[in-house]
Amino acid sequence: MLLSKSCYYGIRASVFVASLEKDSEVEYVPIQHIAKALNISFHFLTKILQTLTEKRIMASYRGPKGGIRLARAAEEVKLIEIVQAIDGNAIFTECVLGLTGCGEMVPCPLHGDWGEARKQTRAMFEKTTLAELANKMHEFNLRLAG
């Protein structure tokens, strides 16, 4: 796994919320609803969404009509923001084999190939928005849960 389970879930939850906001005038989505729809532990998801709220990607509201929503328009939220909020930049800087000191002077067996893949992955995450992913979900009937 290149991303943590928390990061995978954070991305999936963010896309899910973006897809609901596209469909209607949903103000806040209950976390319980997201957890059930994506088959994610409520408590685990709550911690992930708390991180995204602290990083101002999500906004939360307590109370009977409370829940979570995107802090900005889905068109403005890039995938890289979610990855950096949860996992940091490790996927874009560290050795794919986890070797310390891996670099041009002392490379691992995958260094050359991983360096190029890492650049392409970063570029994809930098250009992809939540709106694009939510649109693809609707247009092609794609899924976010198993």
Outline the secondary-structure elements:
Elements: H1 5-23, H2 31-38, H3 42-54, E1 58-61, E2 67-70, H4 79-87, H5 90-93, H6 111-127, H7 130-140
Antiparallel strand pairs: 1-2
Helix pairs in contact: 1-3, 1-4, 1-7, 4-6
Task: Report on the architecture of this protein.
With 146 residues, this protein is mainly α. 55% of the residues lie in helices and 5% in strands. The chain has seven helices and two strands. It has helices spanning 5-23, 31-38, 42-54, 79-87, 90-93, 111-127, 130-140, and strands spanning 58-61, 67-70. Strands 1-2 form a two-stranded antiparallel ribbon. The chain is elongated.
H/E element order? HHHEEHHHH
Query: What kind of assembly state do the chains in view correspond to?
Result: single chain
Class from helix and strand fractions: mainly alpha
User: What is the strand tally?
Assistant: 2
The poorly predicted ranges are none
Short description, anyone?
This protein is mainly α and 146 residues long. It has helices spanning 5-23, 31-38, 42-54, 79-87, 90-93, 111-127, 130-140; strands spanning 58-61, 67-70.
